[in-house]
Specification:
mainly alpha, MetI-like fold, 2 strands, transmembrane helix, 313 residues
């Protein structure tokens, strides 16, 4: 009873702090939203001309997250799928340890390594720009979000595979067939959750875009262009004039980032609830469908073998 009351008090404190954060950012960003002549929601960031647009930075943040997600999602699915295969069980232990180790590496380590290794490689290989680009930041963001995505997928797939392995073996499934016909189709909500969390982690990071993206407030036309992410923009711009357009634009940028993260968090929770409700039905239907497919494949193989034997005879 005491523990439950303490949990309720802690939850209420956290909720109040989050609401206070929302209120704080919204209050300082309010002049931007109610001023019809505000230039904050434009593409031009030219402080010397009184232009304080943040949309190019918002687009850069979304583009960085999207590129990193497109690269990281197939890799995360491949790593997670490899760890579910029975024949590679002894290797999967070390891979999971490596993923957990990657999750604990400070972001600045990735950034320093990329400045001295990845950026010169991109500059000398593609001969376009300085190397500080959308591509360099996205590639390092892949390393940042990959552990999160793999751990989310593995947390769902590992117990499901363990629970179904004996049943699947009794039906004639091999380990890859169980993975591709049952486990991965049933893990679609987990895949969506991993993708959303990875995207949220990518657009919320500050240091890697700040060190690697080039910090040019412009729209990117290629992967080799320099861009400035919204998080890096907040870190770079120093506005001390209280109530100025530049000052308020930073709070608008923070409020937008917070709203995006809130939307992603609520989406992940919604997916998690639907995953719990529909997981049992989904697994049973996928298992029945996969059984039919495997039976058809085996029947086809047996028919083909009999035909070959008759021709040989």
């Amino acid at each position: 009873m005491m523990a439950e009351r303490l949990q309720q008090i802690c939850s209420a404190v956290v909720l109040i702090l989050i609401l206070a954060l929302f209120g704080f950012l919204f209050w300082f960003a309010l002049p931007v939203f109610i001023n019809p002549n505000s230039s904050t929601f434009s593409l031009a960031w030219q402080p010397e001309q009184g232009q304080f647009g943040i949309l190019s930075m918002l687009a850069a943040s979304c583009l960085l997250g999207l590129v990193a997600l497109i690269i990281a999602l197939p890799v995360a699915l491949g790593v997670c799928g490899f760890c579910q295969l029975e024949q590679y069980k002894k290797y999967s232990v070390w891979i999971r340890r490596l993923i957990r180790f990657m999750a604990g590496i400070p972001t600045v380590v990735y950034g320093i390594a990329a400045v001295f290794l990845l950026v010169p490689f991109i500059r000398e290989t593609f001969n376009q720009g300085s190397g500080f680009s959308l591509l360099a930041a996205s590639l390092m963001l892949v390393l940042l979000i990959l552990p999160v995505m793999v751990m989310v997928l593995d947390a769902y797939c590992q117990p499901l595979t363990a629970r179904l392995s004996q049943t699947a073996a009794s039906m004639g499934f091999t380990s890859p067939q169980l993975l591709f016909h049952v486990t991965l189709p049933a893990a679609k909500p987990a895949i969506c959750s991993a993708a959303l969390l990875g995207f949220s982690r990518a657009i919320g990071d500050t240091l890697l875009p700040l060190m690697l993206a080039g910090n040019a407030p412009q729209l990117a036309s290629s992967l080799f262009d320099s861009v400035r992410a919204l998080t890096a923009h907040i870190g770079l711009v120093i506005a001390t004039e209280h109530g100025s357009a530049e000052y308020n634009s930073l709070f608008a940028a923070g409020f937008l980032l917070l709203c995006i993260n809130l939307f992603i968090t609520l989406s992940v929770r919604k997916l998690g609830q639907s995953q719990q409700q529909g997981a049992g039905k989904k697994v049973r239907s996928d298992l029945a469908l996969a059984t039919t497919q495997v039976t058809n494949v085996n029947t086809s193989i047996n028919t083909q073998s009999c035909s070959d034997n008759r021709q040989t005879t």
